[in-house]
From TrEMBL, chains A, B:
Protein name according to UniProt: Sulfate transporter
Keyword Transmembrane: yes
PROSITE patterns noted in UniProt: SLC26A (PS01130), STAS (PS50801)
CDD domains, A to Z: STAS_SulP_like_sulfate_transporter (cd07042)
Originating organism: Populus canescens
Gene3D superfamilies assigned: STAS domain (3.30.750.24)
Location within or outside the cell: Membrane
Keyword Transcription regulation assigned: no
Record field: transmembrane: 112-130, 165-187, 199-217, 246-263, 275-296, 367-390, 402-424, 430-448, 460-488
InterPro entries assigned to the protein according to its UniProt record, in alphabetical order: S04_transporter_CS, SLC26A/SulP_dom, SLC26A/SulP_fam, STAS_dom, STAS_dom_sf
Stored Pfam families: STAS, Sulfate_transp
Limits of the STAS domain: 516-640
Membrane topology reported for the UniProt record: Multi-pass membrane protein
Annotated GO CC locations: membrane
Amino acid sequence: MEPNASNNMQPDHCLGITPMEVHKVVPPPHRSTIQKLKSKLKETFFPDDPLLQFKRQPLGKKWILAAQYVFPILQWGPNYSFKLFKSDIVSGLTIASLAIPQGISYAKLASLPPIVGLYSSFVPPLVYAVLGSSRDLAVGPVSIASLILGSMLRQKVSPINDPLLFLQLAFSSTFFAGLFQASLGLLRLGFIIDFLSKAILIGFMAGAAVIVSLQQLKSLLGITHFTKQMGLVPVLSSAFHNINEWSWQTILMGFCFLVFLPLARHVSMRKPKLFWVSAGAPLVSVILSTILVFAFKAQHHGISVIGKLQEGLNPPSWNMLHFHGSNLGLVIKTGLVTGIISLTEGIAVGRTFAALKNYQVDGNKEMMAIGLMNVIGSATSCYVTTGAFSRSAVNHNAGAKTAVSNVVMSVTVMVTLLFLMPLFQYTPNVVLGAIIVTAVIGLIDFPAACQIWKIDKFDFVVMLCAFFGVVFISVQDGLAIAVAISIFKILLQVTRPKTLVLGNIPGTDIFRNLHHYKDATRIPGFLILSIEAPINFANTTYLKERILRWINEYETEEDIKKQSSIHFLILDLSAVSAIDTSGVSLFKDLKKAVENKGVELVLVNPVGEVLEKLIRADDARDIMGPDTLYLTVGEAVAALSPTMKGQSSSYV
Amino acid sequence: MEPNASNNMQPDHCLGITPMEVHKVVPPPHRSTIQKLKSKLKETFFPDDPLLQFKRQPLGKKWILAAQYVFPILQWGPNYSFKLFKSDIVSGLTIASLAIPQGISYAKLASLPPIVGLYSSFVPPLVYAVLGSSRDLAVGPVSIASLILGSMLRQKVSPINDPLLFLQLAFSSTFFAGLFQASLGLLRLGFIIDFLSKAILIGFMAGAAVIVSLQQLKSLLGITHFTKQMGLVPVLSSAFHNINEWSWQTILMGFCFLVFLPLARHVSMRKPKLFWVSAGAPLVSVILSTILVFAFKAQHHGISVIGKLQEGLNPPSWNMLHFHGSNLGLVIKTGLVTGIISLTEGIAVGRTFAALKNYQVDGNKEMMAIGLMNVIGSATSCYVTTGAFSRSAVNHNAGAKTAVSNVVMSVTVMVTLLFLMPLFQYTPNVVLGAIIVTAVIGLIDFPAACQIWKIDKFDFVVMLCAFFGVVFISVQDGLAIAVAISIFKILLQVTRPKTLVLGNIPGTDIFRNLHHYKDATRIPGFLILSIEAPINFANTTYLKERILRWINEYETEEDIKKQSSIHFLILDLSAVSAIDTSGVSLFKDLKKAVENKGVELVLVNPVGEVLEKLIRADDARDIMGPDTLYLTVGEAVAALSPTMKGQSSSYV
């Protein structure tokens, strides 16, 4: 069993690497409660240590750094060059050509007047250019947030019967979304968006894509009487109960663009150099279809068009915000949900591109920027905006260098608002439907879903719940269900922590899971368990029962083998990162319980905080005595083996 | 630095205990998804392995074991002896003397007719004697559940204006409480009660004791017009706004018993042999006060009495249960809250005494017993009952051996119900108030609160929240707030896992936290981090930021010391018990991020499940390559040190 057992020069030291010198477990250096609280709060709310750069700087420099922290434009602005501007103007114009049709389409998705979508591509990008720290984010309305905003508000107010109230509620929701986003950043609670896991987002996005696409059946088929509901079943039944309303002209036009747009997308994906094919396709479609309608007077042949749009820049809307009244609860709730969803998209997109170009995006700072942008937006006739995924990807591919590309887009939209609005009068709704469908279908990520199935079946279930919840129940309920399941899983992990039985890997002092490493062997007389979670109120009962069952199982097994019974129960606490009062009493209870069976409880390597609490609770030193506390499992086994009587240990 | 560096017999093996033989990290033995799911479900729902005893038994024996499992009376019944009966009859009579005044008092606490309290001490103990597995639990109504039941139902229905409806709702709530309890046991979801931590319960009990005691001001001061509210402020203002209603005779009598009862309790606590002093005191108080009132006709001098009580056994009440109608929501909610609270008390009491006498109580089985007892109770005019702490303590001290003591108590209560009810006609309400106050004041556990303060400040805050929530807001809200804070703490622990920087303890291959063990030293060129929590969607963002910050901090520090930069980032994953898809992608992101800094990512000892998922996700073998995966930190450092160029490692 022992390869160099014949070497007896330093038997205790070299054989099985069993150091006879036993290292003492010492309590960590003393820190006061205030110090502990301070470091805990810092770890929780300032893990990125934003004040690090201010250290060891003169006062003047500190002011400059602070101003740069609040307004990142001060950081890159002074170094801005004509060369950068050339790149930014190309990318800015490219995203503008995408922003105009998208703005109109997404506003329709939110049941808002199309012009609001354009307003929302004018003011927020300017605000973001000053406050935002991402160089690639292109700001504007996004499909998911538009969909949620519309569907939540429609539950109480009809956009057709009461369009003014609906608009007021949309602006108010935008205000609360912004307020909520900015507060999250300011209070450094940004980690809340981390609770939307990748699996949830993939399921949610796919579900939302289905829902949104189904909504487009109205424009794609040319139906005039369409259901107001969002679910799969009512929408499909509404579409097929109104077959007499289907218009073949609309369907034909829709079909053509539904072939053209994905094709353009496909070309760009194959050859990233041809990014402008995909980026320009929506604007080309809009122009083409508008010319077609105008030329053939198709609006009189069953093809519905946008109609007359108002010219001019964003009118002020702060007098339209609702801060009281019966709809306050609705707008706050809508603001919360859309705020958190759009924030998730914005932050995720910002981080993705920052990682590609190897610069840092400060999550909490971004939240403040996006939040403030929405608060200002809500006062200037804009609805919820964020960093849009599709638009930012185009921006990045078009070679954007700084946030100036957002300014270029904003100016282009401004020109459109001032002078080009009459051109959109004949734009058919069907082309907008096709643009939306193409955009959202791209959100369905099959390869990622397959990867999730391969890695983690539970995450796959969460993903399916989000998907089916969104498709069959509602957007916000689907999301809530998926988040609840995810949190339940975390709680279950805490409630049912793993306990591993460790064995010795022969010839070493390494102890590893017996059921994983087949060459690991039990040491007779010892049951060595590793507890793999913080010990707290939610799992003490389970841990006690489970540990006692390990002893029973071990003794039954050993009984059959006619081997010795357990003398020592060694608990390896290396992985126990925290403990509370219930956890502390677990050890007292456990000690009593195992002593009744003639077993001694030995603890190994409790980490700082756990050790401190155990010492404080254990006045009588009956848990933490000198013979019951060791630094490593190997040392514990080596030190305790000789004390077992009538026991020939094969370890030392 | 190295004590035996001069010994060059086996330099690699003995110095710093650096084994040159590197152990391979192998994936755990293959198990199918079904097998994994099965073992996970077993660990979650059957951690106590209730079927273990059925293994390797003949069929006949299995049937007997099953019957004994469902009816524990079959287990101890056949061996029941006269000697045991003698003990049980003494303890049974003792708890009956406590049960009668307590039953009447607690029923009043729940705003129910006093007789219902006696009914509830008759049927449920009989049911428990057949189904229950605890030998010491004495069953009956308890103060906390009575208080909650009364206060929740009173919010919607007045027990004075509509006594019949109130009674119906109380029985219906009892039915749902029982149904809920039994289902928890049947579905093996008993761990839900674990979420009521010790700290929460201590704060909650103390708060409830204050609320209950304040309610007794009505009887203790003899006030007739008293507020219906429960909060501290309205109750005190009501008591002091009705000073004109105070009756000195009542106050005097109340004061006497409020001295006598705690005194009796004190005597018993000092000398456990005199348990009967405390156990008999309430009955003595009731008899004494009743005689006094009868002798002095005190009911005409401002002392209010219980009045005429109906004779006879429990009437059936199944026709009074509400399964529909406007109050269904209320009774289900009340049933849920009272059910879970009374279950917590019953299970905790059962476990406490089982631990004292060294036998096992099966939590899920007890839940079914208590639940069934309440369902049957609700059909026989009983309200919520459970294993009462005070009564069980008396039972245990009086020498109870089996559940027969419950039967004896039940028979005694039956005799009282049949023949002795007229005797209670003149019992003054003030003595019942004094009994309740004495009982609940005993629930305030100052030493435990001090212990919690000493061990864990956060638990103390949770305790205070429960206390002040109950006192100032409401019983159920206080409880909900405390549970929410506790769960939030768990989630925070998961969201912000600890990352420890490890250093080598000189002369060993032990690696421990640098900030805890001052003799641990850094190994130049290596940053060794231990991650102390499962890695999942809620913490990947944080972990990535935190690990990159560790690298920055380390490099800044080393820069000042003019030492070398980091070549390897070693992540010790021993304490990472689980991982999900987001966690898997963390390693890919991290690898890219550190490679940009010229650092190589090395993983150490991923446990079974984590290793499996990493392998499955890592098709290209870029994370889990042969040079980036080791079994121990020591082996990783030993193997990688020679590869660093221009680097004189002090480790090997």
